[in-house]
Specification:
The protein has about 220 residues and is of the alpha+beta class. The chain is built from two helices and eleven strands.
Length: about 220
């Protein structure tokens, strides 16, 4: 016969697995050094890191000219460089995955402060709210950022689905991000890039419950 603690442990273990995310949430962390800039807040050689999280499941808005456009798939964005550290959450942004465009494959991620900035898609994606920066003697507002992964090959993709994993060595034609503010711009290339499928990781609540279940079972064995 099961003891009460056995039942509690079983319930907690069941709850921990049920609490994991059901949709693929992909996190990209891209770091490198700024290689061109006309902004005093972002100097050439300064380290920059972009973190993006997007949901990969679901359909694109439309396909045209060997490009698939996705809207409002981002769940999180964070920009870090020097004293500038800003982030936002929600449903926003535009993803352009191209397969065989001009004989090449690649993907572009865009987030913008105003929906009108996004091109091609209609209705427009949602905007983000990211911090201003004091640069060139004035306060400048964030406008948009393009994150680019480009290959010289057309063998990287074989469909328009959003990726759940990346081999960054495939993107030999360019790995960079271009930023625009109200009074300046800069670009950085990636020297470090990682992709993590957060779907396979337990949520904090689930991990805590799993630990509690283990303690409950350990307590039973000591009695």
């Amino acid at each position: 016969m099961f003891r009460y603690c056995d039942i509690v442990a079983a319930v907690l273990l069941t709850g921990s697995f049920a609490s994991t995310a059901s949709a693929d949430l992909i996190q990209l962390v891209l770091s490198g050094q700024i290689n061109s800039s006309n902004m005093t807040a972002f100097q050439v050689g300064q380290t920059m890191t972009v973190t993006l999280r997007y949901e990969s499941s679901g359909s694109y808005q439309f396909v045209a000219s060997q490009q698939a456009f996705y809207v409002d798939r981002f769940k999180y964005v964070r920009l870090q460089s020097g004293g500038y550290d800003t982030s936002d959450t929600g449903d926003f942004g535009q993803i352009d995955k191209y397969d065989g465009l001009g004989g090449t494959d690649g993907i572009q991620f865009q987030v913008a402060a105003q929906s009108a900035t996004y091109q091609y898609t209609n209705p427009k994606p949602n905007a983000v709210q990211l911090a201003n920066v004091f640069s060139n003697g004035v306060s400048q507002s964030f406008d948009n950022v393009f994150v680019n992964l480009n290959s010289s090959s057309n063998a990287v993709w074989n469909n328009y689905d959003l990726p759940t994993g990346y081999n960054f060595a495939d993107f030999n034609a360019g790995q960079n991000a271009v930023f625009h503010f109200s009074g300046g711009s800069f670009m950085f290339g990636f020297s470090s890039a990682s992709a993590t499928n957060l779907t396979t990781l337990p949520e904090p609540a689930g991990a805590a419950m799993l630990g509690l279940a283990g303690l409950t079972m350990l307590s039973r064995r000591r009695k």
